[in-house]
Amino acid sequence: MDRKERLNKTPEELSQLERTLGIPPLSEAREAVIQTLFVKGHTLPGVDLSAPKIMQFMEELGPIVGMNTFYGPVVKTPDSYDEETKQRLGGRPPEDINSILMWDDSGSQMYIFPNQDNWFTISVYACKTFNEQAVLKYIYDKLNLREDLQFASQNQSGNEQPGWLSYAETQEQTLTPEKSVYEPLAQVLNVERTNLPAVIQAGQDIERIVFQANREGWGDRLGAMFTPEYAQRFQAIHSQFEIATDRQFADDVLAGKITNPDEYPFQKTYDRLAHMEAQAAEMQPGNQVVHIGTGHFPGTAYGLLKLGIPVVCVEMDSAVAKTSAEVLQRLNLLGNEKLMVVPIDGSQLDTSQFTNVIISAMVTTEDKIRILQILEDLTVDEKQVVLRTTAGARKLIYPPLPREVTTNIRGTLIAKTRPGTEDPIESLVYRLRPSAEIGRGLDRILFETKRKLKAPQPLTVE
Predict the structure, then answer these.
(1) How would you write the pLDDT of the chain (462 residues) with one tens digit per residue?
(2) What three-state secondary structure class fits 413?
(3) pTM summary value
């Protein structure tokens, strides 16, 4: 059959010949179900783009699409990559973030470019139909994307939607509630730091905005607005506000204007925190508890005392520690079986006698690491450590716990608190276990560590 003769065949005749030859006619050939979704846009500048977060995002994408993971996810970031990637890039780490994931018969690939203002793109393809809007909402919420998010899709019939569509235009609710607080947040950053009343107002404004965002469900977006550098500026202003408030409270107590410790402006917050931490760490009356970094007035320690748990309060600033002891004495809270104040750097304190150790959020990363190393070296019996951290909008109030602290703890995370919308902090409880060397009776580490430390010497007030 020459070409001319074949071309003169009708479609029906050609199909019949193909059937005879075992070739499925194209008019009858089946098509696999396939749906593809392409997404692009920018994330907010402060979104967490660490390898663990990207890994979690990709893992949780599968159930949204309705697929099971077959391979991956593989994640490469500027801080987490393999040696092969570095060699392929000429000896330098990657500048972008990429991840690939294979499901049973489909998958997803994502790129984020931090050096291009967090430009983001992801493709999702599945050999089945999936809820496109549910996937878009998941991507928007989890990665805190900005309002320029666009998407294009192709369904199982090969029909493409016309060009890129704006995700914002397909939604009825406001996708950028954070814009409502742009102006007051800018005013906070511009506050005159030498104007104490203005700083106090700015600190109160930070808390008001953070708690509003938490109540209304966009706290994560508020936190993702700011890079660590900008978040630290808010933290510094809030810290100055707290210190000024603490000093005023201390002055009023020492002047006889305040006689009730529950008039401490932050006490209700600290009472909730004390209750949550005591419950999470299973603290009981009779436990030996030390709190490192307590400031002018130890609100958490007082909250624990109201639960029947005495606390040793450690403050490295000797002047602040002296004021704290005087304030507690005036309020009839100082003494054995009450609260005691020790003026010492927490990294120089012998903590071997304590069963529970609380480390304040404002203790520096370096000091936290040193304190934890000492605790681990001194642990003969199990000891519980409470570390404080923040996420989402709360990052504007206190710093999150750095990974270099948590990744080096020789212990097990046993509990977390569940802060409410107006609680500024989350607490993590770790259980430390005796080191293997001490467990085998080789106590040289214990001896050498204790020799360098100081026993608690509480202040007394005449």
Answers:
(1) 455 555 678 888 888 888 899 998 888 887 777 899 999 999 999 999 999 999 999 999 999 999 999 999 999 998 888 777 777 878 888 889 999 999 987 899 999 999 999 999 999 999 888 999 999 999 999 999 999 999 999 876 555 566 899 999 888 878 899 999 999 999 999 999 999 999 999 999 999 999 999 999 999 999 999 999 999 999 999 999 999 999 999 999 999 999 999 999 999 999 999 999 999 999 999 999 999 999 999 999 999 999 999 999 999 999 999 999 999 999 999 999 999 999 999 889 888 889 999 999 999 999 999 999 888 877 777 889 999 999 999 999 999 999 889 887 888 999 999 999 999 999 999 998 776 555 455 465 555 566 667 778 887 776
(2) strand
(3) 0.88
Q: Looking up tokens 């949780």, which residue turns up?
A: 60
Let me know: does 300 contact 270? Beta carbons within 8 Å: yes
Could you tell me where in the chain the CATH 3.40.50.150 domains are found? 262-451
- The whole-angstrom distance between residue 19's C-alpha and the CA centroid of its chain comes to 62
CA 287 – CA 308 distance, rounded (Å): 10
* CA 324 from centre of chain: 31
- Where in the sequence of the chain do the CATH 3.60.90.10 domains occur? 34-175
CATH code of the domain occupying 262-451:
3.40.50.150
Fold of 34-175: S-adenosylmethionine decarboxylase (3.60.90)
